[in-house]
Specification:
single chain; 108 residues; alpha/beta; 5 strands
């Protein structure tokens, strides 16, 4: 994971098979960087990754994110996520819909 000061964005490129636990760890790390750098734009590149998350795990991801970013206080609502994914990621549109329904800004 890296923070690009010029573009004011936190970037993470995933490789291989990603798990629910790994995604939670990345969310926690990105939240720490967001608080430290006052940066709330996240870019997740999943083009070289695959995920075998259940629909329930996908559904719960946005709920988990809300709990993790709560440490940012009022800034938690500033988080904007962009996800770049290919056909190798299942349920990505579902994840976008669930996140939007929970008031999160995310685009796939």
């Amino acid at each position: 994971m890296s923070y690009d000061r010029t573009m004011q964005i936190i970037e993470r490129k995933f490789r291989g098979v990603i798990t629910f636990v790994e995604i939670k760890q990345v969310m926690t790390e990105a939240t720490g960087i967001s608080g430290k750098e006052n940066c709330f734009s996240w870019l997740n590149d999943l083009t070289d990754a695959s995920a075998d998350l259940t629909p329930t795990e996908v559904y719960n991801l946005s709920k988990v994110l809300l709990a993790i970013v709560a440490e940012l206080g009022d800034n938690a609502n500033k988080i904007r996520r962009a996800i770049v994914a290919g056909d190798n990621i299942k349920n990505v549109q579902f994840a976008e819909t669930v996140s939007a329904n929970r008031g999160q800004l995310v685009r796939v």
